[in-house]
Specification:
Number of strands: 13
Radius of gyration: 20 Å
CATH architecture of the largest domain: 3-Layer(aba) Sandwich
Number of domains: 2
Helix content: 25-40%
Shape: elongated
Structural class: alpha/beta
């Protein structure tokens, strides 16, 4: 099957491109789209396509990921998604306001909406629009945990701008334990936290380098209040890190208590994080539980099988 999509969320795109289909992307416009991010690492079954060629040879399915993408595809290719070519919408995000009464932009429309968590499907009001849930899946990076650095790893993009959403305001409770922060604009954290010692910016790293850095840290800290479940949390678990997780949204569906700690009480998380940092053997044992849990729920094979069923259903009309 030929799938037309765009590269909206890198980790998600990478997992999806591991499937058995031919994946087509329109050339980038204003830095959005195309295969430039992947470069030579792009899978053989992924390619950029001339928009004009799609008019005569439409893809089997269009996978939309932004509310304005349907208009963009029509303008560039002349194809009306959902009319000239089957299409669906992949919703990555939780609703932002008036939860749980937020109407989805595609509510009551003809295109199937695919949610990445069951909670998202419950919270978004999609009206009569058909919906499906495909939970996250990632390739297995292997058990690589060493944990020799007795710090907590904190991986968040734009942690200062997103502040309460990402639980950045809770970091001072963990500062005495030592935190290494990774991600876009993580360098703004020390100043935003008024120079409190114990928080160090460890870099905005590419995925391979980030994995190399994460496995050295003793445990992974996940404080997001409002998220669809971060891929970085799942990958940390797959790598074998024990995790200290704020119990919000669907985190408990992925994280068993034996994987480290999961609680809505930050004080409980601090207590367990301190113990993990002081006891490498316990940290390693809990990391093994985390890895098995992530493999069981978020394995790549299950993810791709789920997507195959959705693609078949949409393509068949």
């Amino acid at each position: 099957m030929r799938i037309l999509l765009s590269d909206v969320h890198g980790g998600y795109t990478d997992a999806l491109l591991a499937g058995r289909h031919d994946y087509e992307l329109l050339p980038a416009v204003d830095g959005r789209g195309g295969l430039s991010r992947l470069g030579a690492a792009a899978p053989a079954r992924a390619r950029e396509v001339d928009p004009a060629q799609l008019r005569d040879a439409p893809p089997d399915v269009v996978l939309l990921q932004r509310p304005d993408e349907a208009a963009g595809v029509a303008a560039r290719t002349g194809l009306r998604v959902g009319v000239d070519v089957p299409a669906m919408f992949l919703e990555h995000n939780t609703p932002k306001e008036s939860v749980p009464n937020t109407r989805h932009p595609l509510a009551d429309g003809p295109l199937r909406v695919v949610h990445v968590t069951h909670l998202n499907a419950l919270l978004w009001d999609c009206g009569r629009t058909p919906t499906t849930v495909v939970e996250h899946g990632l390739p297995d990076p292997g058990l690589r945990y060493t944990g020799g650095v007795d710090h907590l790893a904190f991986v968040v993009n734009e942690p200062v701008r997103r502040w309460r959403v990402t639980g950045t305001d809770l970091l001072p409770r963990f500062v005495p334990l030592g935190i290494d922060a990774f991600g876009i604009d993580g360098d703004l954290l020390p100043a935003a936290l008024e120079g409190q010692p114990g928080v160090a910016f460890a870099g905005n790293l590419k995925p391979p380098q980030l994995r190399d850095a994460l496995v050295q840290r003793r445990a992974y800290l996940h404080l997001n209040r409002w998220t669809s479940l971060g891929l970085s949390l799942i990958e940390a678990m797959l790598l074998g890190l024990p995790v200290v997780v704020l119990d919000t949204t669907v985190a408990a569906r992925t994280v068993p208590p034996e994987a480290g700690a999961i609680s809505a009480d930050p004080a409980e998380l601090v207590t367990v994080a301190r113990r993990l940092l002081a006891d490498p053997d316990e940290a390693r044992a809990r990391g093994l539980v985390a890895r098995e849990a992530a493999l069981a729920r978020h394995g790549l094979a299950r993810f791709l099988d789920d997507w195959d069923r959705v693609f078949d259903r949409v393509a068949a009309g």
